Each structure stands twice: as C-alpha cells, then as structure tokens.
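INFO worker-7 received task bundle
INFO bundle size: 2
INFO processing item 0
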Amino acid sequence: MSEPYDRLLRATADLPTPCAILDGPALATNTHDLVRRAGGVPVRVASKSVRVRDLLDRTLAHDGFAGLMTYSLAESVWLADLGHDDLLLAYPTADAAALRDLVASEQRLAAIMLMVDSLEHLDLLDALVGTDHPPIRLCLDVDCSLRVGPLHLGVRRSPVRTPEQASALAAAIAARPGFELVGVMFYDAQVAGLPDTSPAVRLVKKRSNDDLAERRSAVVAAVRRHADLELVNAGGTGSLEVTGTDPSITELTAGSGLFMPTLFDRYDAFHARPAAYYALSVVRRPADDVVTLFSGGYTASGPAKASRAPSPVWPDGLSLIGSEGAGEVQTPVKGAAARTLRLGDRVLMRHAKAGEMCERFDRVALVDAAGDVELLPTYRGEGKNFG
C-alpha cells in the first residue's frame, strides 16, 4: 500500500466507519500553495469549503490569509460571537431571525458584511427588521459570467453586470438610510470552478479572463464614485494566479484548495494534492469482483452527473457501478482489487466537492506525518447546521 493511504488507514483503524479523514501533510502543502499562487494578495477563506471551525482558525493563523467568506448569516453571527471580526457573507439572506440577531449587536454589525445585488434585497431587509435599524454593511455582487452572443457561460447570480448598472445601484444604496456599501465581489465560476478538460474550456477561460480584466476595473471605478470601498473580492481556488494580477482587486478567496476534492483534479495552473478522504467498510460480496461498502452516498451538489459522484481511490482500480452509484446505506464497487478485499476491510473514497463532505460527519480525523490522529469537530459536530 502506498503513501498516504497506508498511513491514513493505519492511523484511523480503530475509528468506526464511515470515517472522515484529513491528510495533515497534504493539507499543509495546499495551505502554503494557495498563498504562493495568490502572489501576495490576501486570501479570504471560504468557510463552506471547510466547515471545520478549528481548521478555519488554523488557516487564518497563516500569513497570507485574512478573513472568512461565509455562506449563511446564522453561521456568520455564530462566528462573530466567537471572535471573528472580518466576515463576508457570500450570498444574499432572507433569514429574519439571523437578521434580528445581526442588528441587535454593534459587534456583529461591525464584523459582518451582507451580500446584495438589487434594491429588492434592501427592501427585504427593511421589511424583516424594520426601517430604523442601525447601518448594515453591504457588498455588491457583480455578475462575472461570459456572454457570447445569446450564450451565458457561467453561473446565474447577480443581475448587475455593467459599470452603469453597478453605478446606479451604488448611488441608490448611498441614498438609502440604514445601509453602507463597503465592498464589491466578483466570482468567476466559469474560470475558478471549471477544470481544464478541453481546448474549448481553455478558450472560455481565456476569453473570460480578458473580459473580466477590463470589466472589473470599470465596475470598481463606477462604484467608487458613490461608495468608500473597504474591499474588492474576486477569484477562487482555480483562478488565483490570473485574478491576483488585477490591480483593481484587494483580496482573493479560496477554500476548496485546502481539501482538493476531485473537481479540482484537472487544472493546468496547479497540481492537486488530495487532502480529504472518507473510509467505508466492506460488508458483503455479491460477486467475485464486486464488494459492497456500508453507506457512502455522498453525492455533491450541482448538475446530476458523474463528476458529482464520490470516487473510490484505494485500493487502486475500483469504480462505482453505474446502475447503483453511491448509495444511501450501501455502495457497491467493482474491479480486480475487489477480489482481494475481505469483509471488514476499508476502502478510501474522495468527495467531488470540499466542505459538503463534512455535513455527513461529526468529526474529522486529522492524521499527521507520523500517523498521529487529532479528532476535530465539524460544524455538524458542534451542533450547527446552516443548510
């Protein structure tokens, strides 16, 4: 058995399965590599791609990282109450209870920045907490998709795309009591989150980068006419090298690059070093070259296709069965290696995405180079579920 699989399985042999495992040396290498790839631009850590509070704190302790990008307002309030003072909520919220918690505390208001992309969001916030609330700090989400004729290449997020649209919304926010626009965000999903699997993909990325290099600076200049910006956030794990060279931005974001799930295996700009795994136990043998694993149906979000399925990585040569895939309580795998597996043996799997894996586990086993194990609670293990 090769490194790191032998070390990880030996270290966690006494832990019940399913068992989430982090390879400490790979995690450390990935942490340093994100900073290197950012080229001196501060990296904000995406909490949704980690969901282990101790690991978020440890990552922020490294030079080159600053602040968290959160995915839930309730999560943001929780982290603010625990002492985090730089929290950018990446998505708009309609959580009335969390909004009431936010405006009830000056410390939370100072620590948390909400995401908006329309005046409708401000109307909703006022409707949920009243119009006499103290100033709420806002970040404007700008659409970064590539438009080629009628084609929309990228995710469907903000309706704000042009400098003119951004300027108009910034001016309207400036005139609105109870709100302060202090940030702008650009997430280039079709660059940062798309593997380099074909010449067509590489062409889309190049055209996107060329478009954004011009459009980002124009949007930022337009917004600055109406707002005193504290941050201009951009990029993701897959686009740090390119986006970090744009002088109009002040920070980058990354999170998946710490764990390196399978969706990040085929990028030209960097070599993925997998750090996150989970172990499943063999519980039956329906055929000579097929074994069935207990649990394991951890399919990642996004379009329902093979790239979102988990992958068996040890023993080498195993694969999911197309007619069953990864199941809720059993996952059959096939291959020559299955002939040598016995009941009770363990198979290592990798998830397609990063932090989603942690929603399935109360703790992760962090295994260092010597094979020593540290058990760290996930958000779920701390009794937190943010959707």
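INFO item 0 finished
INFO processing item 1
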Amino acid sequence: MNHSPALPAEPDCALCERRHLCLPVVRDDIASAVAGNVRRVAAGDTLFQQDEGFVSLYAVRSGSFKTSVGTPPRNGRVTGFALPGDLLGLDAIDAGLHRCQAIALQDSEVCELPYDQVEQALAASGMLQRRFHQLMSREIVRDHALMRLLGQRQAGARIAAFLLGLSERAQERGQSAAELRLPMSREDIGSHLGLRIETVSHVLTRLRASGCLRVRLREIDIVDMPGLRSLAG
C-alpha cells in the first residue's frame, strides 16, 4: 500500500479554493472540530485499497483520483473520478470497508477527516449535517448518471455525455466549461464507460473531424456545445 506521509500542516478550510464544494462551506472552523491532516499522494499511488478498513473520509484538495474495483483494465472497472472538492470514502460508511480503491491520477493532496470526529461534528451542527446529506445525495445522482450512461448503446452518446459531465464539474469549480484538461487516460475513460480504448480514440477523432471538438492529447476544447448535447441525447 502506497500511503504517503501526512504533511505537518492541518487543513486551512477558510483559505481553500474548493470550500464551496466541500463540508467546510457551512462551517469555517471545521478544522478545529475535526483534527484532520493534509496528505500528499503522488501520481500513481493508492490512497486506500479495496476492502481496506474504513477510518477516514478524504476531501480532495488538489489533483485528482480514479476509483476502481478489481484490477483494470482486464479484470476490473474504473467506477469514477474525484476532482478537487469531492469527498472520497463515502461508500465505505455502511459496511466499514472501502468498496473500491482510489489511485491518484496526478500529484494530489487530500484533507484526511477521521470519521468518528466527523460524526461528532455532524451531531453538533445541523447545517453541517444538511451539507453532508447533500454531498451523499450528489454521489447517488452521479451513480444514477453512470447507469444512464452505460445504458446508452451508442459509444458516441456515452462519450459526449461524459465530456458534458466533466464540463459541468469544471464550471462548478470556476474553470472554463469549454476547455477541458483531462487528468485521466483514454484507457481509464474506456473502462469507466464500458468501451475499448480504440473506440474512445475513434469517437474523439470523429468528433474532432466533425468540428464538435478540438483534441490535443488530453486537452479537449468543446467547440460545438449544442451539437455535443444533441449527440448525448
């Protein structure tokens, strides 16, 4: 297991650019209620393993992660991608075990929040409790969106919907909705959408040729947003 050592600094929620997406949005002093650490995770390292005991939630401070079950690409599947402001580990609360593994897609930082302290903070703050329920609801909505994605028969529709989802998430973070910088590989996208990597590359090439996208490796500019929405259905 490639757990990186915690940094000496504690999370400074008041200065975090992603606080509006995370738990501290309703409470500037959450750091005093939850004695968490900022943990640095190098690209390719694992934050937590599948079936590992659940101790903490992790708020992505910078960078990005992929979550997966099994061993992709042959014997596993990428289940999602976590960006700054997202919480990792919510699926482990029920059984006390992580249902997936989380791997850093680039050099990243997370705020480690011991769940026993999170529970105490939730009990003391109705606003924080409501925010936590909102975050859990957001994860359920994403799961439903993934099921709808996988129900699409056409590969083009799946990829178009995936890019639109990334566009919305970028906009939530104050970034351009049209200029996407993908932290994940074509292989990761294919695993997530149930497509072969060759299919992902072919669809992106076709969308570029049609004038819908500009594609430069992992830099994708959405040129025709209405056209992409039409393709996604």
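INFO item 1 finished
INFO post-check item 1: Residues 126-151 form the longest helix (26 residues).
INFO post-check item 1: Helices lie at 30-33, 115-124, 126-151, 155-172, 186-193, 197-209, 225-232.
INFO worker-7 idle
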